[in-house]
Known about the structure:
With 284 residues, this protein is mostly beta strands. It is built from three helices and 16 strands. The chain has helices spanning 5-8, 36-44, 157-160, and strands at 49-51, 56-58, 69-74, 81-88, 95-100, 107-112, 118-126, 131-138, 164-168, 177-183, 200-208, 215-221, 230-235, 243-250, 255-261, 270-274. The longest helix has 9 residues, at 36-44.
Amino acid sequence: xxxxxxxxxxxxxxxxxxxxxxxxxxxxxxxxxxxxxxxxxxxxxxxxxxxxxxxxxxxxxxxxxxxxxxxxxxxxxxxxxxxxxxxxxxxxxxxxxxxxxxxxxxxxxxxxxxxxxxxxxxxxxxxxxxxxxxxxxxxxxxxxxxxxxxxxxxxxxxxxxxxxxxxxxxxxxxxxxxxxxxxxxxxxxxxxxxxxxxxxxxxxxxxxxxxxxxxxxxxxxxxxxxxxxxxxxxxxxxxxxxxxxxxxxxxxxxxxxxxxxxxxxxxxxxxxxxxxxxxxxxxx
Length: 284
């Protein structure tokens, strides 16, 4: 088993925690997590941090399925956001993902694995370098991170790795369009003996335009994202975009790609399913 401390170990840097008015005193963690000090230094080292209810984290108070717990982080109240993170404090791998919204709205929803009852946090970094943090407590029976993926019980699971199902809603008056993605992938944490970690690592959403393919948003995901990961994003496609293009890879070098046509105003959501070579990254 890999050394979990590589993700949860203490950082040497000193961090100044600011209150919402940047007072000199350091506020205590409102969720009372025993891991907060270590995680703060690990993931926000050197940057000011405030606990801020403007960041809305939504997750169930009690997890029905610890392998797929729905979580959303909404930082739209902050305005311009440069980066977002999701953290499950007591997971073997606390950092769930980093989201770079680019021109998209600072909102992301997904499903995550939870190993035990834990604080689940969302944080958003604004252009001034301040991290705004909020979170909720999620009760759980445990074991979500160490359970083998259900996919492995299916004989043809490798034939479907990398398939993408996507739905894109027409843009609203403010130019924001809801994009929902589902990717067929075991997203294995590697915590089961003899099974290496195998998970989607990076996803990029680009716009297909006559002028090129500008990046709209990027997700850097890690082991705690659920099997067959699902994401909801609020992107802002350029007016001349004919489609959105999803590009990604997993940690074994497998590529993910799908094209989602832009629906006209008032139309039903556009659908896209894209299968890729199933042998590209399973060690064959």
